[in-house]
Write a structure and sequence with these properties.
Length: about 240
């Protein structure tokens, strides 16, 4: 029975794509030290589509940046796809980011002089693809986000929502298991916001990615599997 219990635990552990335990982050030191995360517990299963919501300054971007291997934590444990990254140094972060993470920002950060396909190809080439393979793969990724007809369009000729979907296709380059998005609909109207969120949801539901979206956009809440609330550096238990 004890063995069975252990196996069950291992199975449960394995399903967690993101497993955060007692995570703290303090910015600065001494008199100017500020504790942005105060002991966060947060788990996301593989294939889940989770929204992280909370007021401005509550620690959303800080948490997402640690999950995204952009920032190191002050204390606590973080596991991505079963790998403990808690003791990673700044020097380890690029490797971890490449292996596990695709990031979508509030501003799409596309290069204006490049077409949609070139914007995505560029990232694939930076990841070691040959030019022709990068072209083919970027066409496929753009097709996956519903932009198969816009490969040759430049950012200026796309709607805000379409640009954000190019940014999502770019985040998918290299097929990272975890996709993180920080307020991806903040600059969009309702219709474009919904379309972008549906695209992110499809990554989880149709392609098996694990997706966490930071948002306080109540217009898109209904598309989440689960909404996790954070306030003042702490996750609020559902009531
Ligand atoms: N680099 C930094 N240095 C000092 N304080 C920071 C830094 N980044 C964020 N903070 C502070 O940490 C708190 C949480 O910030 P953030 O995670 O960006 O919140 P949110 O994304 O929920 O608005 C805020 O009070 C913010 O001012
Ligand atoms: Mg933020």
């Amino acid at each position: 029975m004890i063995t069975l219990g252990t196996e069950m635990n291992e199975v449960t552990e394995h399903r967690a794509a993101i497993d955060v335990c007692d995570l703290a982050k303090t910015y600065g030191s001494g008199a100017s030290a500020f504790q942005a995360l105060k002991g966060v517990d947060f788990r996301v299963n593989a294939g889940e589509f989770v929204m992280l919501s909370g007021p401005s300054g509550s620690g959303k971007t800080t948490l997402l940046s640690i999950l995204g291997c952009v920032l190191t934590a002050t204390s606590g444990r973080v596991r991505l796809m079963g790998e403990d990254i808690s003791r990673a140094t700044e020097g380890d972060l690029p490797r971890l980011r490449r292996e596990y993470i695709g990031f979508v920002f509030q501003a799409h950060n596309l290069i204006a002089s490049l077409t949609a396909q070139e914007n995505v190809s560029l990232l694939l080439e930076m990841r070691g693809y040959e030019t022709s393979a990068a072209r083919a793969a970027s066409g496929k990724l753009l097709d996956d986000v519903g932009l198969g007809e816009k490969l040759k369009s430049k950012p200026a000729d796309l709607s805000g929502g379409q640009r954000q979907r190019v940014a999502i296709a770019r985040a998918l380059a290299g097929s990272p298991p975890i996709i993180l998005a920080d307020e991806p609909t903040a600059a969009l109207d309702a219709q474009n916001g919904l379309k972008v969120t549906e695209t992110l949801r499809a990554l989880a539901k149709e392609h098996g990615h694990t997706v966490v979206v930071v948002t306080h956009d109540s217009r898109i809440f209904h598309l989440a599997d689960r909404i996790v609330h954070i306030e003042d550096g702490l996750i609020q238990e559902p009531t």
